[in-house]
Amino acid sequence: MEHSGKDNSVRKILIVMSAADTWERTDGSAYPTGYWAEELAAPHQKFVEAGFTVDFAAPGGVRQPLDRHSADPAVAGADCGRYVEHAEKALREFGPLLKLGEVDIDDYAAVVLPGGHGPVVDLHQDADLGRLLTAADAAGKPIGAVCHGPAALLSAVDSEGRWLFAGREMAAFTDEEERLFGTAEGAPWLLASRLREWGAKHSGGPAYQPFTLRDGNLFTGQNPASSAPMAEAMVAALG
């Protein structure tokens, strides 16, 4: 299957997934993780409906498993099944994921970073992603990140360790939501706190309710429920 081609770059979106399937806790235990269905499916659906082609990439081209919590109606809501079905179909039809290190940002109109806990495992320090985000930001391309996806923004540091997104307004999964979810205790670090420590202007809304922010070309959402509104804002910006 042919994934790329610069002739239609203005109508292509890149979704960058984590490759992590476990999150090591401070006690040495391994917490199973994967992509969160709604955070991948809702943006994908919004972009496809708007006429965009969507590519998927990950470190090494490794396809992350589904986070089973995102398929549990007690956790992810009564309609989570349709997100799981949409996400699995989209990934199946796309085929092998692109290798993140081989992606050319010139091929894409925008970049989207969905969550699940994976980004706090690998994407936050992925040098290939850091270069890609730096180039995307320099070109003014929309960058979207939702829930734990904003952890991936931490990868964009220059040769002197300065963070590209310091001083920018952004939303992300809050420390309160992490505690309510049951994963704050034992976490090596908490996302919202880390973003603030690095200089982000982080703010949030009520737990698990849609909350999105835009700061120039940066679009962020707080939690799974924010995935579709974030994507809608990006589609509007892309025209």
UniProtKB/TrEMBL annotation:
> Which keywords appear in this protein's UniProt record, sorted alphabetically?
Hydrolase, Protease
The protein's matches in Pfam families, at most eight in alphabetical order, are given as: DJ-1_PfpI
Q: Which residues form the DJ-1/PfpI domain?
A: 39-235
Task: Write down the InterPro entries for this protein, in alphabetical order.
Answer: Class_I_gatase-like, DJ-1/PfpI, Prot/Nucl_acid_deglycase
**Which residues fall in a coiled-coil region?**
none
Which GO molecular function terms does the record list? peptidase activity
Q: Which GO terms describe its biological process?
A: proteolysis
Q: Which PANTHER family match?
A: DJ-1_PFPI DOMAIN-CONTAINING PROTEIN, PROTEIN/NUCLEIC ACID DEGLYCASE DJ-1-RELATED
Q: What is this protein called?
A: Intracellular protease/amidase
Which species is this UniProt entry from?
Answer: Amycolatopsis magusensis
